[in-house]
Amino acid sequence: LLRSLEPRTRKNYGTRLLRFTQFCNLRGIPESQRMPASDALLTTFVAEWSGKVAKTTVESWLAGLSFWHTLNEATWHGGHMLCQILKTIPKKESEKGKKCPPIMLEHLCALRDRLDMRNTFDAAVFAMACVAFWCCRRLGELVIPSKTLFNLARHVVRGAKLGFKCTSGGGEYVNLHLPWTKKTGTKGFNIPITNWGGETASVPAVRQHFEVNSEVPNDALFFAFATRDDLCGWAPMTCDWFLGRCSKVWEAAGLESRTGHCFQIGGATKLLLLGVPPDIVQVLGG
């Protein structure tokens, strides 16, 4: 059951459990009363944080506690009192969902102009930025959270078969199979990497990335880059490294930084403005 969770979800659940444990320690709640936790104890725990954190935060803590009970085959006693106290927690502005501002074409142009395409790391960053934007992808489908979480069953590798093709109009594109996506799970998804975007087009960016990183082995992450800082001579691109480099460039260009999700939003928005049918854009982001 524990293995069914994403690594990040397991980490988050552990953090949520720690909140409850600290709460019980401060109030001298014995271990025997913590699991299964009574409806009254859960209600008191929630009441402690009412008005201090967002309602969704409290609900996420309870989700972690509930899973902890399930994992230990303990009965979950969250009932009427817990539901009532949850109703009293006001929704904060942050809960209504801060809209992620999209990545604009200016952001990609700044990367193109300020990154060194002869540098192995910069070339990988630019190629990934173009693919994430024009293919409307989530960063988690293209990179890994950290160097230790590379999984061949979930992450596309450099040796993936790339079928470069041409459209009837002469435009070049290539299909790339992602072994896992948020929507399709392990069924994966084929994304068409196209020549949309002129100087920020994905196909030439990927070609440049592969050329300067030619020494990276085929079983490495698709956006891995050559480096002398690692004993094996290459390193997989992580989300923090990617966003950190992008943010540094955007700051120097006088542009606001963006989060990873903004690439998908920005790409979809741009394609719609270019006249691409909504159903096609929806399929791209599938």
Describe the structure.
With 286 residues, this protein is mostly helical. The chain has 2 domains: 2-96, no CATH class; 105-284, Intergrase catalytic core (hpI Integrase, Chain A), CATH 1.10.443.10. The protein is built from 10 helices and 5 strands; from the N terminus they run ααααααβββαββααα. The strands form 2 sheets. A 3-stranded antiparallel sheet has the order 1-2-3, with no helix packed on it. A two-stranded antiparallel ribbon has the order 4-5. A hairpin with a 7-residue loop joins strand 4 and strand 5 (234-235).
- Percentage of residues in strands: 5-15%
Helix content: 40-55%
Distance N to C terminus: 27 Å
Give the overall form.
elongated
Overall mean pLDDT stands at 87
Total DSSP helices = 10
Return the structural class.
mainly alpha
The CATH homologous superfamily of the largest domain: Intergrase catalytic core
Q: What is the CATH topology of the largest domain?
A: hpI Integrase, Chain A
H and E string: HHHHHHEEEHEEHHH
Under the CATH scheme, the architecture of the largest domain is Orthogonal Bundle
The count of β-strands is 5
> Can you list the strand order of the major beta sheet?
1-2-3
Indicate the low-confidence ranges by residue numbers: 93-97
| Number of separate structural domains | 2
Report Rg: 23 Å
Oligomer: single chain
Q: Class of the largest domain, according to the CATH hierarchy?
A: Mainly Alpha
Q: What are its keywords?
A:
10 helices, mainly alpha, Integrase-like_cat_sf, 2 domains, DNA binding, Phage_Integrase-like_Recomb, 286 residues, elongated, DNA recombination, three-stranded antiparallel β-sheet, two-stranded antiparallel sheet, DNA-binding, hpI Integrase, Chain A
